[in-house]
Amino acid sequence: MSDATTGPAPRQGGSGAAISIRGVGKEYAAAAGPVRALTPTDLEVKPGEFVVLLGPSGCGKTTLLRMLAGLVTPTEGSISIGERKLFAEGDSKPSHDALDSLGFVFQAPNLLPWRKVWRNIALPLETKGVSRAERKERAVELARAVGLEDFLDHYPKQLSGGMQQRVAIARALIHEPSILLMDEPFGALDAMTRDQMNLLLQELWLETGKTIVLVTHSISEAVFLADRVVLLSSRPGRVKDVVDVEFARPRDLLVQNDAGFGESVERLREQLGGHE
Ligand code: ADP
Ligand code: MG
């Protein structure tokens, strides 16, 4: 673990970063006056890196992830995805070119109940004019990658919560984005299912080389999954610490019994002031 209290210094354009966040902050307009959700923040994510944003409820994690997803406009600062600007300083709308590189998974799987598993997975390809045969072929491939090859013709209500979230992950990957953005994707699952999903996600990440930015308020999930944990503090949200996690990959669940794992969790817990 490093003792860095700030992220790496932002480099100039053409840095080769997967995501560059420069001076990005957010103030929401609200009836009772403006709410500062995130102070201006710098962060770079390297291609293929697994970065976890960790912090207590209300510290601006979702706000930051939704800005990366082009769903919320920054109040200040700029965001690049690879070499493309998603938001230049002052832009009120995201650039659609940059959005093509992104896949999203949220806490709720948001599946269409009347569609079978494979047709939920393939949904994003329908607006892209991909033939039915190719959509099915790609959906089957991704269903296999998330362990759902035997459930292609099931409907969402026939699946457990963990399986529904597997469908959401496959759907997020179907247009072959290089970056996966995940907002508390396993927050609604029981502890054992969550462990299984963490293992699955690590395996997918190792196999595909995607860049992942995942939000969680679970310290142990953050340390288990991350190459780097970015710790946010609340009111207003700001980066409080960046912690490198150096356990070898693939990690198995027993790594949580390692003394070093416990130390990382303790360090983060202290800084969060006992919140998890
Ligand atoms: P987190 O995901 O870490 O729980 P959020 O990004 O959802 O935090 O919220 C950060 C802060 O911004 C909170 O104080 C929240 O109430 C406020 N906030 C979030 N969305 C809005 C909005 N659309 N309008 C006004 N305030 C908001
Ligand atoms: Mg949130």
Automatic annotation (TrEMBL):
Q: Does the keyword Transport apply?
A: yes
The record's section on InterPro entries has: AAA+_ATPase, ABC_transporter-like_ATP-bd, ABC_transporter-like_CS, ABC_transporter_ATP-bind, P-loop_NTPase
Q: Which UniProt keywords apply?
A: ATP-binding, Nucleotide-binding, Transport
Q: Which GO terms describe its molecular function?
A: ATP binding
What positions does the domain ABC transporter occupy?
Answer: 19-259
The parts of the chain that form a coiled coil are none
PROSITE patterns documented for this protein: ABC_TRANSPORTER_1, ABC_TRANSPORTER_2
Cite the SUPFAM superfamilies for this sequence: P-loop containing nucleoside triphosphate hydrolases (SSF52540)
Protein name as it appears in the record: ABC transporter ATP-binding protein
